Amino acid sequence: MCVATCVVFVPVNRAEDRANDVLARAKEKLREENLPKEALESLRPWSLDPGSDPDRIGEAVPLVVEALARLNRINEADEYLEKTAAVHARNGKVLHAVAMAYVSLQHFGHVIDNRFVRGNAGTGQWQDSRDRDRARALSLMRAAEKRFIDGVDNRVADNSADNSADNSAAKPVAKRELGEFYLDFAACLLWQREGNTAWRLQTTTDLESLPDYDAGNARFAGGTFAPVDSDGNPVCYTLPETFESARSDGQRWRWCLDRAANAAQLAKHLESYTTPNNP
Predict the structure, then answer these.
(1) Considering only CA atoms, which of 214, 196, 207, 195 is closest in space to residue 249?
(2) Model pTM?
(3) What are the boundaries of each domain within the chain?
(4) CA separation (Å) from 105 to 174, 236, 274?
């Protein structure tokens, strides 16, 4: 009598397993054991490795910044963020994470030997970096958007797709994720443009070149709470046809909100086709 034996080979995603291990251990070191140095020593090199899981690298970015801040080494954040963006320039999820990190940083520093050093350096000329950080975040969000659009079609992304041919790009994002991205994009546009600085939404931030650091104090820039036009009417921002055609950051903001709403509506519509009906 002959008994047939069937052997099933299950593919192992070593990059994903490594990501789970690194991120879990780093969070434990950082949040539970209060060991930010150990968390940083594992997270930073892993997140800068082109061979790491492209779908998980973005999760490490805020953790690295948090570890640097707790170690009073926030002056190292700029170099880390720019290296991360350069190494993973084709990964929209990473660019998104780096952009949001710029929004969360300390927005001041000192110029020492003609170089901006973020945080309390103690010496040198004090500088405010809010406008520069905002502009950098917006340029990164715009770059991330282009990567997302390249990988998103008119259906919910198939996260089972094989992306082994290009490990530098994350898997396509689902429409609901794209909606969340546009909400973050809108928030970046609105940042430093609320309350008594809402009038600044009438300007258009240059996404090609960064503004200089400010020796003044941008936090106390004044203005009216309700911007008005030359006739005294409240300024309302119309919806542009495209991001490129927007004539102000206010129109860019409206465009991002519209894109977020469209993505959310499409995701909800598609769920009715992809979710089985309950009896």
Answers:
(1) 207
(2) 0.82
(3) 107-153+168-274
(4) 28, 31, 40
